[in-house]
Amino acid sequence: MSRAFVKESDAETEGLLPQINGPLHVSAATIAAWQEELAAADADIARLRGSDAPEDRQAMSSAKRRADLLRARLAAAVVVRPAGPAEEAGFGSVIVAEDENGRQWTFTLVGGEEADPAAGRISWQSPLGEALIGGRAGDVVDWPRRDGLLSLAIRSVSPN
Description:
By secondary structure, the chain is α/β, with parallel strands linked by helices. 34% of the residues lie in helices and 26% in strands. The protein has a five-stranded mixed sheet. It is elongated and about 60 Å long. The N and C termini lie far apart (48 Å). The relative contact order is 0.15.
C-alpha cells in the first residue's frame, strides 16, 4: 500500500524506537505521568493478548511500542529538583516576564522531554531557558529569537 494512504498513527507504531542518548532531565511529575501511561499501556497489552482480530493486533502493536518507549524514557530519566534560592530562576521555576512592548509572558523551565512552548513550558537548555536561568525579579534578559533579540524584564520567579 502506498504510504500516502497510511494514517500517521499507523506510522508511529512501525519501525524502531527512537534512540535515547544521555539522560532525560525531567520533573518528578513527569516521572509519575510516564508511570501512569506505562500502567495503562501494560493494561491494554494484557487486555488484547490472544486476540486475532486485525484491529486488536494493531492496537497491541501500538501499546507494546508505547510501553517500550516509556520504559526506555523511565530508564534514562533523571529527576531534577530545583537548586538554589526559590527567588532565582532554575529548573522547575515559573517566571513571569514582560517585554518592551508591555506583553506579559509566563514560562516554566522544564526538561526537553516536557517542553511545550505553546503552553509556556520551555526547555532549560533552549536559548530562552539559558537566558532565564539564574534570573531574579527585576533582572532584564535578552531572548534570542529568529527576528532578533527581545528584552524581557523578569517580574517574578517562583518554584513550581
